[in-house]
Design brief:
46% of the residues lie in helices and 17% in strands. With 186 residues, it is α/β, with parallel strands linked by helices. It has a five-stranded parallel sheet, sandwiched between helices. A two-stranded antiparallel ribbon has the order 2-3. Strand 6, helix 7 and strand 7 form a beta-alpha-beta unit. It binds S-adenosylmethionine. The site of S-adenosylmethionine has 19 residues, from loops.
């Protein structure tokens, strides 16, 4: 059981390492173009990844069995995006929880050179993505990455269709296979 929990923690790190590599490859590939690059994190969390407190709330793991290392703070996806070089032009951090949004606002202090380009949106992800996509059609010279990392099945099919219609957004959608799709299949 302890191995299983360690695997969960390692998987999260691997997931974020892959996102980080992708974002770097993405901004490098488009750096000599005229596109403004947008990063949208629709389930942004706090900017930090604390496996123990985040996941315990959702009841996904038995935390009594986790070792102390699992409590360490790691950079979450929002920080990883802000660390990406070359940089994105704008960062949209969407988070439904107001307390987590207050933490996300603090990123502006940690990244003062990017502060004016950081938008923290305290809203449901589906609603916020719809708004962003609406304004996107008026701002043509954009390309973007949308990172969807929900705990559950929070992303509506309509949202995915809206994003697809823009034809300028690379979407990463990490969905919970075990607690989401497998249950819905029945
Ligand atoms: C798995 S965590 C995201 C972790 C983050 N990607 C990271 O690396 O730190 C999912 C987050 O989505 C938020 N959330 C849940 N439902 C939401 C919704 N409908 N809209 C926006 N955020 C939501 C939760 O509060 C939680 O912070």
């Amino acid at each position: 059981m302890a191995d299983l929990q360690n695997f969960g923690g390692d998987w999260t790190q691997e997931k974020l390492a892959r996102v980080s590599s992708y974002l770097t490859a993405y901004t490098n590939a488009l750096k000599n173009t005229t596109f403004s690059l947008i990063y949208i994190d629709a389930f942004a969390g706090t900017g930090y990844r604390n496996v123990k407190s985040d996941d315990k709330k959702q009841g996904l793991w038995s935390f009594d069995l986790l070792d102390e290392d699992a409590e360490a703070l790691h950079a979450g996806s929002a920080r990883i995006a802000l660390e990406t070089s070359p940089r994105f032009a704008e960062y949209y951090f969407i988070e439904q929880d107001a307390i987590k949004c207050a933490e996300l606002e603090k990123l502006k202090l940690d990244y003062p050179d990017k502060a004016k380009d950081i938008y923290v949106v305290n809203e449901d992800a589906n609603t916020a993505i719809r708004h962003i996509c609406k304004s996107w059609t008026r701002r043509r010279n954009l390309r973007g990455v949308l990172f969807l990392d929900p705990f559950g099945m929070n992303v509506t099919w309509q949202t995915i269709e809206t994003v697809a219609k823009i034809e300028a957004i690379d979407m990463w959608y990490l969905f919970p296979l075990g607690v989401g799709v497998n249950r819905l299949l029945t």
